[in-house]
Amino acid sequence: MSVSKLPSGRWRAQVHDPRVGHNVSVSRILGGPGTFRTKTEAKTARERARTQLGQAQQERVTVEQWRTRWLTDPLFDRPKESTNIHRRERTKAFAARYGSIPINDVGDFIVTQWLTGGTHNSTIPTLRTMFNDARSAKGGRLVDRNPFAGLGISRGPGNRHKTPPPEQMVWTLAKIARALSGPNFAAWLQVAAFTGMRPGELDALRWSAVDFEAGVIHVSEQWSAGSATFTTPKNGQARDALLTRPARDALLSLPRESDFCFVNLRGGHFTPSSRAYHWKAIRAAAGYDGTLYLATRHFAGAYMTDVLEQSSEDVAIALGHTDGGALVRKLYGHRDTALALGRVRRAYEGAATVTPLRAVRAPAPETAHDTAHGPQSGQHPRGTAPVSPICGGPVPAGLLAV
User: Fold this and answer.
1) What is the predicted pLDDT for the residue at 286?
2) What is the 3-state secondary structure (H, E, C) of 277-334?
3) Could you please report the per-residue DSSP string of 228-290?
4) Taking 90 as the threshold, does the pLDDT of residue 349 lie above it?
């Protein structure tokens, strides 16, 4: 902790010094006292020390030195180990190529070199984060600007424009899986497609988490291939997934051979590699060229939205999203044109039939003769107006209901 309260009641301030690789008292950088009367004074001294230290170190700290600190200092640590592994992998090649260069010398020319050919585009988000932290106060203001910011390079549409398979293909995939791989992976596919659970959540699913009586699956963990450990689900939140009839039938068809619902050929829970072994043969036999994710979780989101006609907010809750339905509308919905037009057509057909008003010539102005003899047939007494049979209000001037 860079600012902390001492037993004496005074406040101590420290700052990371890249020269020694650990935190030091601000007095080592600024001179003078290392403790302060108030927390505000300690924070102010810490920022002054960081600024001064950053200005002195900008020309000395190399890309590799900063990356090492960024990956090991708890100040920049991420809650999930899988994220930390991802950050190491995404910055490794860049550091291997430019590690000896002072980090403040990384500019547009180096970025252009790195991105030429488009093979390193996937590293941009992580490198942008690494340089953002190097530019921050907690990083020591090692760079004046982030060369990876505002590049305008798209990560690609991903599955946004890819349509999930129709329901019949999902059932075909499950049937072929049963024939080629046995009941476990077939049930895995069926539960995935009709609950929308994430692959890692299904890999970690245990019988104790399935509540057949309440009709829900308690999703409290997932298998992280990156860290090879069980972790909390994405977003760090446990939730309940609906145990739909197809999912229930699939689970009830399985023998309870393990604590885990789905067991691979070696008797353990499924992992990405053990699933890939089965999936490659199954999709080839079915003539399906899409991904496993598209045929399961994306299918579930599209099915709930398009076929079951559920709101994006409700589908988001079912899928474990926390954005109020924004991602469902953007990515998972996959609205089918024919089904959408059919819904609009049925809405029109089901609407109340309204008799349209037909424009007719307004009656001639009232004359003295009319006043003397009263209104004729089809006319209205002076001071009154014809009433609409639809809304009960007066008909606009010049229009009469016929």
Assistant:
1) 96
2) HHHHHHHHHHCCCCCHHHHHHHHHHHHHHHHCCCCHHHHHHHHCCCCCCHHHHHHHCC
3) TEEEPPGGG--EEEE--HHHHHHHHTS---SSBSSB-TTSSB--HHHHHHHHHHHHHHHT--S
4) no
Phi, psi (deg, nearest 5) at residue 322: -125, 20
**How does pLDDT run across 9-44, given as a tens digit for each residue?**
999 988 887 667 788 888 888 888 889 999 999 889
pLDDT value of residue 389: 47
| N residues, the chain | 402
C-beta atoms surrounding 201 within 10 Å: 24
Nearest residue to 158 via CA among 22, 37, 330: 330
CA–CA dist 263, 209 (Å, integer): 15
Q: How far out from the chain centre does Cα 307 lie?
A: 22
Contact (Cβ atoms closer than 8 angstroms) between residue 283 and residue 290? yes
Query: What would the two tokens of residue 265 be?
Result: 């050929």
Strand duo 239-242 + 11-17: pairing: unpaired
| Closest to 15 measured CA to CA, from 31, 5, 28 | 28
> For 344-384, what is the HEC assignment?
HHHHHHHCCCCCCCCECCCCCCCCHHHHHHCCCCCCCCCCC
* Architecture of the domain defined by 167-335: Orthogonal Bundle (1.10)
Q: Are strands 216-219 and 3-5 parallel, antiparallel or unpaired?
A: unpaired
| The pLDDT of residue 383 is above 80 | no
Angstrom distance (rounded) from CA 14 to CA 180: 62
In whole angstroms, give the CA distance from residue 250 to residue 377: 76
The whole-number pLDDT of residue 225 equals: 87
CA distances from 154 to 121, 122, 151, 209 (A): 8, 10, 9, 40
